[in-house]
Amino acid sequence: MKKIVLFLFAATLSFGIEAQVKTPQPSPASKIEQVIGLTDVAVEYSRPSMRGRTIYGNLVPFDKLWRTGANKNTQITFSDDVKIEGKEVKKGSYAIFTKPGKENWEVIFYSDTENWGTPREWDDAKVAAKATVKATAIPFKVETFTLMFSDFTMDSAKLNFIWESTEAAVKIEVPAKKMALASIEKVMAGPSSGDHYRAATFYKETGDFAKAKEHIDKAIASRKEPAFWMHRQQSLIYAKSGDKAGAIKAAQTSLALAEKAGNADYVKMNKDSLAEWGAK
């Protein structure tokens, strides 16, 4: 029995040591995070090296679908809708596949990112965008496959594919001008209903009921559709500020809206408050 226990202990110790072994990866993982205009763009990929090999036309055959790196799919994520070489692409994550050629590359953005290498079964319905771009010779060797962004403007940049002595790039356009104008208009228009509501709850919690009352009234006045939770907060603020009549009126409004919305919790809370405040 003692020998068995010692054997199991040794096996467990051996497994623990093996589980901690770490070695450098031949194609290390990399992540680029870049803001283009006002859009967040992230690229995750693995970076193989030449190591004395001929790459294009050999390791990576011409005009054949390539994973564009090593290991798992190269993946790009956009926080907003963008355009790739003029083609509209919705925000989200995409695998990047390419078909490198002697003179041109075909670059494909594919909605299924869960492949190791290229998909076993290609689905054209998953192609979000496809672009043909020029392949350019560069006057030096780049040992390790590299993705980088360049040629920034207010609302665009290029994603460059660089390896061996070849470079190709796709243009990514983002809605920076549209987003900036919307931001300017929003700020110039003043605080929103939600801004006033958050200010009101803050002032209520910190005991400044006069300011809480001012902001909750503005929140309700600037909202297009009445909301039972806003009128509920208004009733509590009015009650805290000593305006019992105003509190009852607000609670009655909240109650009616909550009943219409089918929100039983707010119906009960309003009924309890109305009874506490002596509403008839």
Keywords for this entry:
280 residues, alpha+beta, six-stranded antiparallel beta sheet, four-stranded antiparallel beta sheet, 7 helices, 10 strands, elongated, disordered N terminus
Describe, in plain words, how this protein is organized in 3D.
This protein has seven helices and ten strands. The protein has helices at 2-19, 176-188, 193-205, 209-221, 228-240, 244-261, 264-276; strands spanning 29-36, 39-46, 75-78, 82-84, 87-89, 92-100, 104-110, 127-134, 136-153, 156-173. The protein is α+β, with helices and mostly antiparallel strands. The chain is elongated, with a radius of gyration of 30 Å. The strands form two sheets. It has a six-stranded antiparallel sheet with strand order 1-2-3-6-7-8, with no helix packed on it. It has a four-stranded antiparallel sheet with strand order 5-4-10-9, with no helix packed on it.
Lateral arrangement of strands in the main beta sheet: 1-2-3-6-7-8
Count of discrete alpha- or pi-helical segments spanning 4 or more residues: 7
Alpha-carbon Rg, integer: 30 Å
The gross shape turns out to be: elongated
> Which percent bin holds the helix content?
25-40%
Q: Could you write a compact summary of the structure shown?
A:
It is built from seven helices and ten strands. The protein is an alpha+beta fold and 280 residues long.
